[in-house]
Known about the structure:
Elements: E1 12-16, E2 19-23, E3 29-30, E4 36-39, E5 42-45, E6 47-52, E7 58-66, E8 69-76, E9 88-95, E10 99-106, E11 112-121, H1 127-131, E12 141-145, E13 148-149, E14 164-169, E15 173-180, E16 188-190, E17 196-205, E18 210-221, E19 242-244, H2 247-262, E20 264-267, E21 278-281, E22 291-292, H3 293-302, H4 309-319, E23 340-341, E24 346-349, E25 352-354, E26 357-358, H5 364-377, H6 382-404, E27 445-446, H7 447-466, H8 470-491, E28 492-494, E29 502-504, E30 507-508, H9 533-544, E31 574-575, H10 576-588, H11 592-608, E32 616-617, H12 640-643, H13 645-654, E33 656-659, E34 664-667, E35 675-682, E36 685-691, E37 697-700, E38 707-709
Parallel strand pairs: 34-38
Antiparallel strand pairs: 1-2, 2-4, 3-6, 4-5, 6-11, 7-8, 8-9, 9-10, 10-18, 11-17, 12-13, 12-14, 14-15, 15-18, 16-17, 19-35, 20-21, 22-23, 23-26, 24-25, 27-30, 28-29, 31-32, 33-34, 35-36, 36-37
Helix pairs in contact: 2-11, 2-13, 3-4, 3-5, 4-5, 4-6, 5-6, 5-7, 6-7, 7-8, 9-11, 10-11, 10-13
Amino acid sequence: MRALQPLLHDVVICVAAPAFAASPRDGQLRGERAEGFYGHDRRLLHTARLLIDRREPEPIGVQPLGPDQVRFTSVHRYPEDSTDDPTVIIERVRTAGAGESVLLRNVGIVSRLLHVELTLATDLADIADVKRGRTGPAVPCTAARGGDAGAGTGADTSAGTGARGLVWETSSGRAEVRAVEPEGSPPLIADGPRGGAFSWPRLRLRPGESRLLRLTVDGGATPAPPGHPGAPGAEVPWSEPVVRGDHRLVALVRRGLSDLRALRLADPERTGPDGPEDQFIAAGCPWYLALFGRDSIWSARMMLPLGTDLARGTLWALARRQGTAHDDVREEAPGRILHELRPADAEHGHGLRLPSRYYGSVDATPLFVTLLVETWHWGLPDADVDALLPYAEAAMEWVLETSAGDEDGLLRYYPRPGGLRHQSWKDSEDAVRDAAGRRIEPPLALCEVQGYAYQAATGLAELLGSRGRADRKEQLLLWAEGLRKRFRDAFWLPSPDGPAPRYVAIAVGRGLDPVSGPASNMGQLLSTGILDADGCRDVAAWLACAELNSGWGLRSRSAALPGFNPMSYHGGSVWTHDTAIAVQGLCAAGQDREAGLLADGLLDAAAHFGYRMPELYGGDARTQDSPAPLAYPAACRPQGWSAASGVAVLSALLGLRPDAGRRVLQVRPTPFGPLKASGLRLAGREFSVRVDGQGRAKVSDLPPGWVTDG
Length: 710
């Protein structure tokens, strides 16, 4: 029987990229599902079971202490006591990337002599195997004393003081757990072929006394891949805004920034010995805690109102790994931008095996170009813009050459056998279906990808024009206009009974055969410029109608179509970032009513998730009696572009649109009630925006030489 992907709906996750810990709500790790300590895509521990007097404590509560830390509280009771009140309380604090502490408190009136044991085991599985629902055989462990591993005798050892532990090693991974007992009571350590244990067989607690036991967990893939991103050493590369207004938006921004702090990774390479640390946002925890071109770019784009440093770091991390040669296995090509970077090659099942450095996406490359253009508009210093410009031009060349080689002149993907079948953000096996529910196979030209390519070409043309390169500017604008015409002729489908007379097909196949059936993809076209004003109005009508607007956010597929499934990965669920991008586009297109509907639904949904937005959630219709929205059971949470969506919605509702060429900040707020944001950042300087109840905006502290338009 095929193993199934572990569900995460009731899993407690704490993260400090590239490490995380996934736990059931009682805090006990029993080697099941996805639970365990992880580092660099490797499961370091899957079992950490605490026993008090050879019994599991009784769980009574779980409390997140931050994105990287969680406290599990349990009690230990005594049947022979005259009361059912607990007299020993256990507080177990788990910290991603560090380990955990166990605080034992005697709150009773008599002394307690406790037998405390923590059993430990691991399979050192790759995250791809865990995602497939596979648990490997237990790896033997050996006792470590000082810096050396023991002989693995399976016997208890107790010599020495201070940090002592257990080590697990295979050809592809290593884990080490050490017990640090600062009060001078080192544990007994047992090692063996199926795992090991720390034990304190006679731990005495007098009334009111407590004892703290600490474990450190470390490890990762072996050998460690050279030059692989790791934990950041510098502070966050964005400003910390203060937002006032709609309490839901305030909470969404605050929680999102907290989660983004934990999802940061840093490139070990720098532009110079004294250059800044280049940070970026990992795609999501637990499955995608790595550099992903598309996801990291979108997270950086959404965060631009808080400064350009995150975008700069993202651009450099990807530029250093830009394709330079043709490689069929990696799907690498000169100029192509990375899809994902892992510590090792991984087997994902169903014949999908991806190399550690993989380029199989059609959208990351044009999105890279647009990120540089938008970062320029938000005030990236000219020296950085000029240094990154050759990489953007190489990326644009890949777009132009790929579309020139297509029979229809579109940006289309042609996956290799064994690689990703669908190569845009909707990348599941059944991501593209027609109106009858039939799967449509590649090669395909997706609608939003044409929009990305158009926006990349027009944006790069503007940037090159500002550098005096008028000839190249005109060439790109001419190509973009040709793509816009080809798009107009190929992608619109009639809909006599719909909310608008036409809609944009999700994709076209060979022979310009459009894939019928309304889907959310068209919402990502609104900000690209590929649609005219009439097209924006038609798309807005579809995004707001009940087929696509669930009331909690934008469905990925129309609920009126066969094959709609509110809990399908891309066949009817709501994606947080997709809804936020649609809100951005609707605001930019002046479709205020439709933008308000989607934003309001998204913010109401956020309240049900404690403002930690999942990657995606159910697309069931919101009614007066409907239950709260439910996260997709295997969704990443926290997830990069979901966490950044609060800032994206804030910026969209404020109507912020900078123009570096003219030094003008456009401020055209969408009516959404009074709103104030301070600590925003433009050209390296913090500014603030206040919108009153009548929608009038006031901007303070713009950089010298900048003016507002709005």
